[in-house]
Every structure is written in structure tokens, then in C-alpha cells.
Amino acid sequence: MGQTIRIIGIDPGLRRTGWGVIDRDGIRLSHVADGMLSPSECRSLADRLVELKDGLEAVLAAYGPHEAAVEETFVNQNARATLKLGHARAVALIVPAMRGLPVAEYAPNEVKKAVVGAGHAEKQQVTRMVRLLLPKSRPETSDAADALAIAICHAHHMAVRLRA
Q1: Of 23, 34, 67, 71, which is the active-site residue?
Q2: What is the CA radius of gyration of the chain?
Q3: Which single residue of 48, 60, 107, 149 could bond 115 by disulfide (Cβ 3.0 to 4.6 Å)?
Q4: Residue 11 is among the residues annotated as catalytic for this protein
């Protein structure tokens, strides 16, 4: 086998931020850990962002990933909600970058296509495929499953880049 690369996938959100850590050794992927951060909704936006930053820093310190992958913002009709999601996404980008990790970004459809084979897959399909690709994983939330899917997507893209 080759060198093991540890990847953290982050599915940013102000209410729930999913995270998932996998190891990539050659073409083999293995589950390390996953979870969800839920900043307190009764706190101010700034305090929630600090809570999110602190939580991500703790996850990075605990699992020591080599690379990070973050899902791009899905733009919807509600500009205010999209802007708030952008704040959480900024935290998800800057925390690993401040630790010197390379940070990749993937569109939601790209993640689904890499994991399920279809860019418009349902959340349940993503969760099922994550469990199939990472048999030891049992993500408790769709946010954690999505984060593992983001990490898997990044691992697949790494393999393509290495072959090129």
C-alpha cells in the first residue's frame, strides 16, 4: 500500500455542521470518525461562529487530517439564509487553512455524483452509499453522512490527479 492520507470532509451549516474523517491508502478508504457540530441557536451570530470555529479546531486537533474538503454553498431563493450559510462556510474554510492544510471545494452535485453516481441523488441514497463504501461508518445524522461523502469525493479526485 502507499502513504496513508487522512482527509476531513466538512458540510458547513450555521445550525448543523457535519464532519467526517477518512483515511485513503492507495485505493482503499477507511472510516476514522464522524460527527456534527450544533452551535447554540439562542446565541448571537458572532458567538455561534466562534462556537463552530472552536468545535472544528477540536476535531482537527483530535484527528490530525492532512487535507480538507468543504462543500460549496448551495444558493437558494432566500438570500439571507444563503449569506448566513456563507459565514459558516468561511469558518469551515479558514480553520483548516490556518493549520496549513490544503482545502478543496466541491459542489453538492459533484459530491453526489462521486459517491452515488448521480448528481441529483437523494440524501438517503448518499447515506446508503457512504455506509457501503465505508462499512465501519454509522453516521447518526445526514450532515455527518454528507461530510463523509465530501471526504470520499476528495479521495476520488486525489486518485484522478495522481493518475494524470
Answers
A1: 71
A2: 15
A3: 149
A4: yes
For residue 111 the three cell numbers come to 459530491
Q: Which three cell numbers stand for residue 75?
A: 444558493
The answer, as to whether pTM is greater than 0.85, is yes
Residues 6+ apart with CB under 8 A from 8: 19, 20, 21, 59, 60, 63, 65, 67, 68, 69, 96, 147, 151
128 Cβ contact list (under 8 Å, min separation 6) = none
Rounded to whole angstroms, how far apart are CA atoms 77 and 85?
A: 13
d(CA 138, CA 52): 23
CB burial string 84-113: b at 16+ within 10 A, e below: bbebbbbbbbebbeeeebebbbbebebbbb
pLDDT tens for each residue of the chain, 164 residues long: 568 999 999 999 999 999 999 999 988 999 999 999 999 999 999 999 999 999 999 999 999 999 999 999 766 677 888 888 899 999 999 999 999 999 999 999 999 999 998 778 888 999 999 999 999 999 999 999 999 999 999 999 986 665 55
Annotated catalytic residue within 23, 34, 67, 143: 143
